Amino acid sequence: MSSFLQFLFKGISVGSLYALIALGYTMVYGILQFINFAHSDVFMLGAFFSYRLAVKLDWLTPSPIQATALLLMAMAMCAITGFLIERLAYRPLRHAPRLNVLITAIGVSLFIENTGQLIFGKNVIGVRSLPQLPEHVFHIAGIPVRAVEVIAVVTAVALMIGLQALVFGTKIGRGMRAVAIDHNIAGLMGIPVDRIISFTFIIGSALAAAAGLLVALTYGQIKQPADASWVLYGLKAFVAAVIGGIGNLPGAMLGGLLLGLSEQFVAGYLSTTFRDAIAFGLLILILLVRPSGLLGKRVVEKV
Amino acid sequence: MALLEVKDLDIHYGAIHALKGVSISVEEGQIVTLVGSNGAGKTTTLRALSGLVGASRGDITFAGKSIRGKKPHEIVRVGIAHSPEGRGIFASLTVRDNLELGAYSRNDKAGIASDIERSFSRFPILKEREKQAAGTLSGGEQQMLAVARALMARPKLLLLDEPSLGLAPQIVHAIFRIIREINAEGMTILLVEQNAHMALSIANHGYVLETGQIKMSDDAKKLAASDEVRKAYLGG
Ligand SMILES: Nc1ncnc2c1ncn2[C@@H]1O[C@H](COP(=O)(O)OP(=O)(O)O)[C@@H](O)[C@H]1O
Ligand SMILES: [Mg+2]
């Protein structure tokens, strides 16, 4: 029983991180019907930006306020990065064939990884040089849970509630939903479509930045920018978005959680060797049983 | 000077030359109609006015200023609202969301709220369906929503693309009565229709478009009575 709860808590914490990243994939897909391959690189940058900021500001053992400030600054930097990616690389191809955009996205991804190596180096940044959170351990239902994991879940949930309020409770959110349905009709409503698309990249990238910081804290290390683990993490988050129904926000959250939990339970009860295969097993299953995803209505295809 | 002035407009879709030197003008306070058979270029003309397609030649002047090359959302801001062919309702959003989206270019919250109430009193069925997904409305109700939504922008000129499309005759009559009412309240309207009979019966002025060119331009009553129009568009 106690191991069950342990897997449950761990699954929720990893799952909420997948969900944060999945939201960026799903928002961009919802609005442009294309998979932003550079999204996992923005996520990676979130980890490096926050680490570099912590070093620069000498906040390696940050107070809660400093930690929040680091998070917000990293989110802002990644938001700018996401804005620039869309503006410089994708917007000129708005009316180009989809394959061109896809190849460009892969190019952007390689560019960020290589530039990242130049700037941040090729070494793993270890736990001791990371911003140190108090290694406090909570007890939830008698199970010890690390503080970072609680913080990760709380932060992720808070951001997701904020996103939900933005998309479903504000004028700009209504504009986003309209653009996701039809760019032309949205334009006829007086909605500045290009500005909404920029905004979507800004929000998705900011969420990915938060995930980058939280992942670094959770695992206690930051792998070098071109390390395959970033892409794998991003790919899993993308799978989570597809499982939930790509283009659907609650779907991305549900998919992330489901994936995180399945991984932990399979790794816990069966074998850790299967852990990374779970995502792709679930993907195949969902594509066979319900190709539009758990909460998706529209047909997945187009790429 | 006319509210809307289109001069020598040429539109291409790749190699397809959809409009060839189209000139039309719309006087303030009037209903002007553009009739013609399927594929003549009526929708293309309205899409050009709204900035959804770019012109390769010609000019579009609205209230004395050129609007050619402006983006769709900028054109809404200068005062042109467009209810598109096929109605363009956001089916998965509620009726109220659709109306609010029509007012996206505005920031006067109180004015928007009172205009929504006005839509509801003009179209009581929309009030009943306020919180329903717009896709659950009937065709006629969706057309009413499309018109109400376009009016939410408080335009000076209303573009209507085939409001009668796919509707039963009774509903078509109701829609046309509403169009006339809106015009009587002072709205200038450019109405595109395949149903030339109905359109010419409520319009002040009419244009006949054929394969991308204006073939006739005259007082709507005279057009409706002319042999050519009756043969080609009014079934004899
Ligand atoms: N998106 C498009 N791409 C290519 N050709 C188009 C497109 N839209 C319309 N056309 C062509 O332009 C011409 C005019 O079409 P349209 O303006 O829709 O006519 P109407 O509204 O009078 O039926 C037609 O020959 C049509 O096939
Ligand atoms: Mg048409």
What is this structure, in a nutshell?
The complex is a heterodimer of chains A (303) and B (236). With 303 residues, chain A is mainly α.
Task: Provide a descriptive summary of the structure in words.
- The complex is a heterodimer of chains A (303) and B (236).
- Chain A has 303 residues and is mainly α.
- Chain A is built from eleven helices and two strands.
- Chain A is globular.
- The C terminus of chain A is likely disordered.
- Chain B has a single domain, classed as P-loop containing nucleotide triphosphate hydrolases (Rossmann fold, 3-Layer(aba) Sandwich).
- In chain B, 39% of the residues lie in helices and 26% in strands.
- Chain B has ten helices and ten strands.
- Chain B has a six-stranded mixed sheet, with helices on both faces. Chain B has a four-stranded antiparallel sheet with strand order 2-1-4-5, with helices on one face.
- In chain B, helix 3 runs parallel beside helix 6.
- Classes of the chains: A mainly alpha (303), B alpha/beta (236).
- The complex binds adenosine-5'-diphosphate (ADP) and magnesium ion (MG).
- Adenosine-5'-diphosphate binds next to strand 2 and helix 1 of chain B.
| Strand count of chain A | 2
Question: H/E order of the elements of chain A?
Answer: HHHHEEHHHHHHH
> Which class best fits the helix and strand makeup of chain B?
alpha/beta
The top level CATH class name of chain A: Mainly Alpha
Overall number of structural domains of chain A? 1
Mean pLDDT of chain B: 95
Number of helices of chain A: 11
Could you give the distance between the termini of chain A? 44 Å
What proportion of the residues of chain B is helical, as a percent range?
A: 25-40%
**Portion in beta strands of chain B:** 25-35%
Average pLDDT score of chain A: 90
Percent of residues of chain A in beta strands?
Answer: under 5%
Number of helices of chain B: 10
Work out the helicity level of chain A: over 70%
Widest sheet, order of strands of chain A = 1-2
